[in-house]
Specification:
Elements (H helix, E strand, L loop, with lengths): L8 H10 L4 H8 L3 H10 L23 H15 L5 H7 L4 H8 L2 H7 L9 E5 L6 E5 L11 H11 L11 E5 L6 E5 L11 H11 L20 H11 L14 E5 L9 H4 L5 E5 H9 L14
Antiparallel strand pairs: 1-2, 3-4, 5-6
Helix pairs in contact: 2-3
Length: 306
């Protein structure tokens, strides 16, 4: 006979089945809790009444629900969600909790097997690759999004299914003529008016011819940077007016230049060239873009046409 009386199968059967005592009454007689009584009834495969003791919900007493009722409730949640419920989903939508499942079944996987549902092993499922047909594992949340087991299979599928009119990269392309080499090249139709060269190399070659010597925007009369006797004072005023911040990108961390909106060499009078209306603070990068004509700038005081 076992040392603990509640472990004795014959005695439990007599008290619970023959005498029809409740688990709570048996626990008081044998010196244990009703949960322990129900646990050993389950271990000895002695059918329990439905429920016994009266059902408790939540985490108060995982054994308060019968195994059959727990399985039926898990199936109900699966039917409502149209998928195998995860632990957190059952806690949210189930009548009981995952503690009851682990108490009766030992694991979430075990109750999924008992319910004949797709088992979620560590939250992953097995699906078939659309390209090679091999099975592979993905997170359950990605089950309806994933189609390929690898990048190689994705590439293979694209090469077979995205050709001709099905290739989004060839769709609606227009033929242009390179301004440097004269060769034809393809670009998206939306690039009309924006593209001029077939490659970066042709752009560089074109710039080296067009922007050399006096044509270069940085040409300063053989290196003479003199901008008149009031230049340093006007440059400081422009920076202070612009709060020492690039007026195009807002950068205030790098070195700041002061740019002539209308080029200095277009004026005969340095005082007019250096008026604050014609000056704007720019970082080195934006200054270069402004000189090349890639961006348009305007000072806070407005500008004027000489």
């Amino acid at each position: 006979m076992p040392d603990s009386p509640w472990q004795d199968k014959d005695r439990l059967y007599d008290l619970y089945v023959e005498q029809e005592l409740s688990a709570a009454s048996i626990g008081e007689e044998l010196g244990c809790s009703d949960v322990t009584v129900l646990d050993w009834l389950d271990r000895h495969d002695i059918p329990t009444r439905n429920p016994d003791p009266p059902r408790m919900t939540g985490e108060d007493n995982p054994r308060s629900v019968s195994k059959d009722d727990l399985l039926a409730d898990y199936k109900r949640v699966a039917e409502d969600l149209d998928k195998t419920p995860t632990q957190s989903e059952y806690n949210e939508f189930g009548e009981y909790s995952h503690r009851a499942i682990r108490s009766h079944y030992g694991s979430m996987g075990a109750i999924q097997d008992s319910a004949s549902l797709e088992r979620l092993r560590k939250g992953r499922v097995t699906i078939e690759c659309d390209a090679c047909g091999d099975e592979y594992s993905v997170k359950h949340a990605e089950k309806n999004k994933s189609r390929f087991c690898s990048r190689d299979c994705l590439g293979q599928w694209m090469s077979e299914n995205m050709t001709g009119e099905n290739n989004r990269y060839d769709y609606n392309q227009t033929e242009f003529t390179c301004e440097w080499c004269g060769e034809s090249y393809l670009r998206a139709a939306s690039q009309e008016g924006k593209t001029r060269f077939c490659s970066q190399e042709c752009l560089v070659e074109w710039r080296s011819r067009e922007y050399s010597g006096e044509n270069h925007p940085r040409w300063k009369d053989n290196g003479d940077y003199y901008r008149g006797p009031n230049w340093h004072r006007q440059r400081a005023k422009a920076r202070e007016r612009d709060n020492h911040q690039c007026q195009h990108c807002g950068n205030s961390d790098s070195k700041l230049d002061v740019h002539h909106i209308i080029p200095f060499n277009e004026f005969k009078d340095y005082e007019r060239a250096n008026r604050l209306q014609n000056l704007i603070t720019l970082c080195v990068s934006c200054h270069s873009n402004a000189e090349w004509g890639n961006i348009a700038v305007q000072s806070k005081l407005g500008t004027f046409i000489e």
